[in-house]
Fold this sequence. Notes:
The protein is an alpha/beta fold.
Amino acid sequence: MVSLRSPASSFSPKRIGLVGFDNVTALHLIASSDSFTAAALDDGYGNRIPCYEVCTIGVNSDRFQTEGGFSLEAQTTINDAPELDTIIVAGGKGIFDDDTDQRMSKWLLSRVNEIRRIGAVCTGVYGIAATGLLNDRQVTTHWRFARDLARRYPRLKIDHRKPFVQDGPFYTTTGLSGGVNLSLALIQEDYGPYLSQSVEQELTLRLTKEDHEEIPADPAEVDNHPIDRFSDLVAWVIRNLHADLSVEVLARRACMCPDHFSKVFKSVFGAPPSDFVQNLRLNEARRRLAKRRKTVHTVAASVGFSNPDAFHRAFERKFGSRPTTLIEKRKSSGEAISNGHVLAQ
């Protein structure tokens, strides 16, 4: 079994299942697919490491027609679909077909405990609503269908004014651009704002540029200012000190391969990523230990030290005293204040 912290595991592309059917809205599938395909990491040598593997899935068959009459061929059907990280249900007239609706809802229910999240583009929300998984959850859809959706599924909390809604592991969007909006939101959730913005820029250039001379900004110029992408990363690290902050995980959020990430990070901050993270963890631990009702064990765990002995050693190396010393000082200070009747005021 591959370790969850190994580079091989960290950089395995997340498999996205895009679900289609006869009379599907083509843009919901194509825009989502292009967005995820554009998401890639930088290995430092001009090569791209794909972040996602897109798998198109047919509900009734591996071949179906879009609302506009285009013929599409899916890679597989719901009967043979592989393991998936995320499922996205497209919208379109075909979602209202009873057979399609029943087959899709049954399949989604069979997969719900195996996947991380489910999304819907526009009327694709009907396909998920039929499962009951969205009961009492916030959703959105195109305003033309909001009243009908509420009539069919009265337990849904619908707000068609919002273009994007997340409620737990369920995501819904509206409009023709819903596929792009949903994809960008998921990319940002997985890899941070830098990569989602890069994908958005790349998609925009594909739609608008006439030739290379009209490109408004050279994407390579972004790498000349690594502090821009690291500022978001550091803010994320501070909010997630309890999480896995290995070099592989940080590099993935920064859209870089581990070796290239470590070199650039050290050039910006003057320390390797591991030392930088440990310094943040220890400083935050000292701050938390100064608060009442905090124990060494709970503080250590809250900043990412699963081994108490390792925490004690690291803390003593950095501050010259053991963490229990702060606890003792806090208690003696509390006694002095209490004896002085300050707490009674």
